Amino acid sequence: MQTEPHKLDDVMLAMDVVDTLRHDADMLAHDLSAPDREQKLITRLREIYDAQGIEVPDEILREGVKALDDHRFAYSAPRPSFLANAYIKRGRWGKPLLVVLGIIGMTWAVNYAAFEAPKNAQAKKIERALKVGLPKSLLEAKTKALGLAKTSEIKSTVEALYIVGMSEAKSGNYNGALEARNGLDGLNGRLQQSYTLRIVSRPRELSGVIRGADENPDISNFYLIVEGIGASGKPLSVLITSEENQKPSLVKKWGVRVPKAVFDKVAADKRDDQIIQNAVIGQKKIGYLAPEYDIQTSGGLIVEWAQ
Q1: Is 256 helix (H, G, I), strand (E, B) or coil?
Q2: Cα 305 to Cα 307: distance, rounded to the nearest angstrom
Q3: What does the pLDDT look like over 150-200, one tens digit per residue?
Q4: At 43, is the secondary structure helix, strand, or coil?
Q5: Residue 230, by phi and psi: left (phi above 0), alpha (psi -120 to 50) or beta?
């Protein structure tokens, strides 16, 4: 059978009893070790309450004494913790910590603004170029080149460059795709050029040079120095690949290798009055990569010679 819960008044009385015992220091000091401690405490408590005109049952007095022994209704201060101490002393360490956190935050912000943000922006730019920009410009350059090209060989070159560029873009190789696109752009530039190939014939300028072969000094190569004259009547810059080192160079004058007989004929033409009467030796037309020559030539070119 369950006991009935204490009435609120009884609990309040028991709490008051305990409080009275705690404040009566003399009573506790003399009676804590006495054999009949409980009865003495009850007797003393009854005297106190009778003096106040308060009637307290013996059962409540005994409950109060027992509650005192069990430390009920007593407040125990919590043990100090690290977080509590840190909070109490926050005035001492708070400002230095804020300064340190501010420095760390500022350092991170500067690093992000100076390095991470540009790097991320560049990565996103490259990603967009690989997915949209380069494929689009490759297709445009290919379409333009095919519209200009006059030979199947040139068209095959255009298609090959386009395929390489698209393959590099799909594989994420930005530099490879860009190189292919630049190759198509350069090809378009050459296909659009139109000029007259003319031997240089001006005072104090060479019209031809003779070069000995490095492997065999007994062999000489003969070159006519030429320039490409555009519609404006001025020399154009032309991309020429030297047969000596296979490197392309953008130049306004270059040498065209010819047989000795052709070289001697031009030399004789210039020798009599320092003017070459038949200076035009070919035409470069739109849609072609090389000129059509009016003279015999091996097609070998150079871009450097001693003046």
Answers
A1: strand
A2: 6
A3: 999 999 999 999 999 999 999 999 999 999 999 999 999 999 999 999 999
A4: helix
A5: beta
Boundaries of every domain in the chain: 8-69, 91-192, 195-302
User: What counts of helices (H) and strands (E) characterise the chain?
Assistant: 11, 9
- The residue ranking higher by pLDDT, 280 or 202, is 280
Rounded distance between C-alpha atoms, residue 267 and residue 222, angstroms: 11
117 vs 124 pLDDT, higher one: 124
Instruction: Measure Cα distances from 230 to 102, 197, 223 in Å.
Output: 66, 9, 22
CA dihedral defined by 159, 163, 169, 170, rounded to 10 degrees? 150
Q: What are phi and psi of 111, to 5 degrees?
A: -60, -40
Buried b / exposed e over 65-93, threshold 16 CB at 10 Å, is bebbeeeebeeeeeeeeeeeeeeeeeeee
Question: Contact, 180 vs 220, CB < 8 A?
Answer: no
pTM of the entire predicted model: 0.59
In whole angstroms, what is the distance from residue 224 CA to residue 264 CA? 10
Q: Which residues contact 37 (CB under 8 A, 6 or more apart)?
A: 31
For the chain, report the end-to-end CA distance as a whole number of angstroms: 128
Q: Cβ–Cβ contacts within 10 Å for residue 172, how many?
A: 12
Q: Which residues are CB-neighbours of 218 under 8 A, at least 6 positions away?
A: none
Backbone angles phi, psi at 250, to 5 degrees: -95, 110
- Tokens encoding 60: 């409540």
